[in-house]
Amino acid sequence: MKSQIIGIGSCVPDKVVTNADMEQWMDTSDEWIQSRSGIKERHWVSEGESASDLAESASRKAIEMAGIQAEEIDLVIVGTITSDYFFPGISAQLQDKLGLGTVGAFDIKAACSAFIYALSIGDQFIRAGTAETVLVVGAEVQSTALNISDEGRDTAVLFGDGAGAAVLKASKGERGILSTHLHCQGKHLKLLWCEEPGSNHHPRMTEDLLKEARHYPMMNGREVFKNAVTRFPEVIQEAMDANQLSIDDVALIIPHQANLRISQAVAKRMGVSMDKVYSNIHKYGNTTAASIPIALCEALEEGEFSEGDTLIFAAFGAGFTWASAAVKW
Ligand code: UT7
User: Fold this and answer.
1) Which of 45, 127, 219, 249 is disulfide-compatible with 245, CB 3.0–4.6 A?
2) Alpha-carbon dihedral sign for residues 167, 74, 89, 101
């Protein structure tokens, strides 16, 4: 039994924030942002728009492409670190918005790797025969978490909002998820994290913590970069080895979109041109758990792959977590 991806969908907010906008709000430049990250613009939510709204829109598109009724879904898994509320997870809101009655739903907080983590869990449910149709989503609103000032410029310019979704269906055919590999190395967690509001003190948020800016994401960019350019090729190779594939058998690598330079380094280490490593970071920035399904949707629309092709998804991010999935489309 395999899990076939029978429908995908994505959604980004309408509001476009350009590098020129960033120049107005902090000491940065279009030149710095583009040369260091490849980002030209990103989409940010407007007041009243939330991660669960983006997740719903992406899910409805995926359900439509799958040609199923929403009621056929028997499990919902959402990768996100930016749920609308501190609790419960965004999956409960999405489950309700889609009118899914009492179907099980939960969140996965594996940051940039969360879509692949969620895909892997959905795949295990299907292979075990516990579920037949699983909705897997990556949805993030990072913009409301950012420190939009000179102090926060190293992270604020990088992140965007968006969501992507995939419907997995049990299938006995050739097409589907061939393998997934999940990794974590928690000893590095403070190199990319958001400390507050934490449950390890009472009250969880104080004016002092806010003044100290401990509720903003913190990243040691250089260290994250160094680890990413090692872990991406490693986990892509792991996916190929598990399926006795050579790089020539892979039609397209769809990496998490964190930095164009990371993707270029991955291409170099894998000995392929950038034609084989999909990139759309210039339009969306880093959308964390949403970046792979958004890229998957665009790559399909652009005719970058077709039925029968082998794809590899790969991600690296906070935790550190990293992961890959090999998929026969
Ligand atoms: O998705 C989660 C995983 N995240 C990642 O994979 C991100 C990994 N890291 C990166 O992508 C890169 O490290 C960054 C894009 C974050 C930064 O690029 P970098 O080439 O590593 O720059 P840097 O952090 O070494 O900073 C270089 C300089 C610094 O100035 P000094 O110390 O050399 O004087 C920074 O203060 O650039 C400065 N800088 C900025 N300048 C203009 C930092 N942010 C900005 C900015 N605009 N927005």
Assistant:
1) 249
2) positive
**Structural domains in the chain, sorted by start:** 2-173 (3.40.47.10), 178-328 (3.40.47.10)
Residue of the nearest CA to atom 42 in ligand 1?
A: 28
Give the pLDDT confidence score for residue 265 in this predicted structure: 98
Whether 227 is catalytic is: no
Q: What is the pLDDT of residue 202?
A: 96
φ/ψ (deg, to 5) at 10: -145, 165
Question: Residues in the chain with pLDDT < 50?
Answer: none
Distance CA 317, CA 71 (A): 33
- Separation in Å, CA 53 to CA 29, 162, 272: 32, 10, 37
d(CA 79, CA 315): 13
Query: Beta partners for 7?
Result: 167
User: Is residue 290 lining ligand 1, measured as CB closer than 6 Å?
Assistant: no
Dist CA 22 CA 156 (whole Å): 9
- Per-residue confidence (pLDDT) for residue 193, from 0 to 100: 98
Name the residue with the closest Cα to ligand 1, atom 45. 154
Q: CA gyration radius for the chain?
A: 19
| Contact indicator for 235, 183 with CB cutoff of 8 Å | yes
Give the Cα separation of 45 and 195 in Å (integer): 23
Nearest CA to ligand 1 atom 39: 154
Q: Are the C-beta atoms of residues 6 and 167 closer than 8 Å to each other?
A: yes
- Amino acid letter, residue 264: Q
For the chain, the farthest-separated pair of C-alpha atoms sits apart, in whole angstroms, at 57
In the residue annotation, 112 being an active-site residue is answered as yes
Cβ neighbourhood burial of 113 (10 Å; 0-12, 13-18, 19+): buried
- Rounded to 5 degrees, what are φ and ψ at 308? 95, -15
- Rounded to whole angstroms, the Cα distance separating 305 from 313 reads 13
Cα–Cα distance for residue pair 179/164, rounded to 1 Å: 20
* Residue 150 CB partners (closer than 8 Å, separation 6+): 26, 27
